């Protein structure tokens, strides 16, 4: 049985040519019966095999060429997208030649100082750099151009710190030696003057003090720690107070009251009697003033002035006013018994025996005058303490 011939065309040969070759072999088997036909088949098989081999080789070359052209594109894409980090593709500004300055701010005990203002100043006066020290006291300045610099550190409660000048080279990491801050000191300017100069200024102020602008209030000190007076100042102060025109007017009024009540009748009446009474009151006042405000205070180193309290309860202020007749400040600032006033009043009363009428002289005159003087001092102190402070002119400020 002869099978129908099957032809294999080269143009139909593809990479699946093995299947068609098997079909060709099958065709050959069908034709095995005829030798002539076998020769033809073999010749055709040989020719078809060559064509198949050539077709397969050409196909492989095409596939290899396509693969080769696609491989570089894929790999190049992969290299661009994943093989290199993204940062590598971004150009960075060149910092070639710049350096850095770092350091630590410490206190005297070696503890770190946080929040200190650190300023890096170029020596040429160009733009400075500033930052605040970290919690561990450290600071770092980067991208610093080469040049000469100095460092200034300013922290609260510490003295200002300035380093010496130092030079930063290209690409140098300069480490500032540990900065040790010292505690800030309060500079207080004190003008020291002799106490007598200060006392003289205070006396000048007190000599212009008048109650309601009229009555002398010289011996009231509104300064609790007033400077002590020298003996010359005590005498000068007593003279200024005892010969004040208002004091002279008071002597005249007191003499008139005695004239009207016929006190000390041995003086008589009329102008002569008034003159004697005026002279007696004048002598009483002047001797008392000098003895209690100058002589005994100078001998016993005590202050003759009344020191205004002005604060506290009414009871405490009243007690202060009364006590001041018996207690006073010493020139050393301590509180002492007021010997000057008690002895001054007693001596003034004793002197009054020299010019009072004979009938009124004696020990009782001494004690009566002393009692009147002491009562007058207590009353005057109460008046000084409780009259409003602003009712006195020329009172110094706080």
What order do the helices and strands come in, and which of them pair?
Layout: H1 17-30, H2 35-83, E1 99-107, E2 117-122, E3 129-132, E4 138-144, E5 147-154, E6 161-162, E7 166-168, E8 173-175, E9 179-181, H3 195-206, E10 210-211, E11 215-216, E12 220-221, H4 231-242, H5 245-261, H6 270-300, E13 306-307, H7 314-323, E14 327-329, E15 335-337, H8 339-351, H9 363-386
Parallel strand pairs: 1-8, 1-9, 12-13
Antiparallel strand pairs: 1-4, 2-3, 2-5, 5-6, 5-7, 10-11, 14-15
Helix pairs in contact: 1-2, 4-6, 5-6, 6-8, 7-9, 8-9
What portion of the residues fall into strands of 2 or more residues? Answer: 5-15%
**Residues in helix, %:** 40-55%
Low-pLDDT residue intervals, each spanning 5 or more residues: 1-38, 61-95
Number of beta-strand segments: 15
Kindly, what is the distance between the CA atoms of the first and last residues, rounded to a whole number of angstroms? 148 Å
**Mean pLDDT score, rounded?**
78
Give a quick account of the main beta sheet: strands, pairing sense, barrel closure: 5 strands, antiparallel
Total domains, how many?
3
- Coarse morphology: rod-shaped
**Radius of gyration over all CA atoms, rounded:** 61 Å
Helix and strand sequence: HHEEEEEEEEEHEEEHHHEHEEHH
**Class by alpha and beta content:** alpha+beta
- The helix tally amounts to 9
């Amino acid at each position: 049985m002869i099978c129908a011939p099957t032809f294999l065309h080269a143009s139909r040969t593809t990479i699946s040519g093995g299947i068609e070759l098997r079909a060709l072999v099958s065709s050959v088997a069908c034709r095995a019966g005829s030798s002539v036909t076998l020769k033809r088949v073999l010749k055709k098989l040989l020719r078809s095999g060559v064509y198949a081999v050539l077709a397969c080789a050409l196909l492989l070359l095409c596939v290899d060429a396509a693969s080769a052209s696609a491989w570089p594109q894929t790999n190049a894409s992969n290299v661009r997208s994943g093989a290199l980090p993204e940062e590598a593709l971004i150009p960075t500004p060149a910092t070639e030649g710049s350096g850095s300055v770092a350091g630590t701010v410490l206190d005297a005990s070696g503890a770190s100082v946080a929040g200190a203002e650190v300023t890096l100043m170029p020596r040429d006066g160009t733009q400075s750099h500033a930052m605040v020290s970290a919690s561990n006291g450290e600071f770092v300045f980067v991208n610093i151009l080469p040049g000469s610099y100095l460092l200034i550190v300013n922290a609260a409660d510490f003295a200002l710190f300035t380093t010496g000048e130092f030079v930063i080279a290209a690409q140098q990491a300069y480490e500032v030696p540990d900065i040790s801050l010292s505690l800030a000191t309060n500079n207080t300017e004190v003008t020291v003057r002799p106490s007598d100069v200060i006392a003289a200024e205070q006396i000048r102020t007190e000599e212009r003090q008048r109650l309601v602008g009229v009555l002398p209030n010289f011996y009231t000190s509104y300064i609790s720690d007033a400077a002590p007076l020298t003996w010359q100042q005590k005498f000068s102060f007593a003279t200024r107070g005892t010969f004040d025109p208002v004091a002279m007017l008071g002597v005249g009024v007191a003499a008139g009251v005695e004239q009207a009540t016929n006190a000390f009748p041995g003086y008589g009446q009329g102008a002569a009697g008034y003159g004697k009474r005026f002279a007696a009151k004048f002598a009483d006042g002047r001797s008392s003033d000098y003895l209690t405000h100058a002589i005994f205070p100078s001998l016993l180193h005590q202050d003759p002035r009344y020191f205004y309290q002005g604060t506290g309860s009414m009871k405490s202020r009243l007690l202060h006013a009364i006590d001041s007749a018996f207690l006073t400040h010493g020139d050393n600032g301590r509180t002492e018994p007021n010997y000057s006033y008690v002895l001054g009043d007693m001596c003034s009363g004793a002197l009054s025996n020299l010019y009072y009428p004979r009938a009124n002289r004696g020990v009782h005159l001494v004690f009566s005058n002393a009692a009147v003087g002491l009562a007058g001092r207590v009353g005057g102190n109460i008046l000084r303490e409780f009259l409003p402070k602003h009712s006195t002119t020329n009172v110094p400020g706080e």
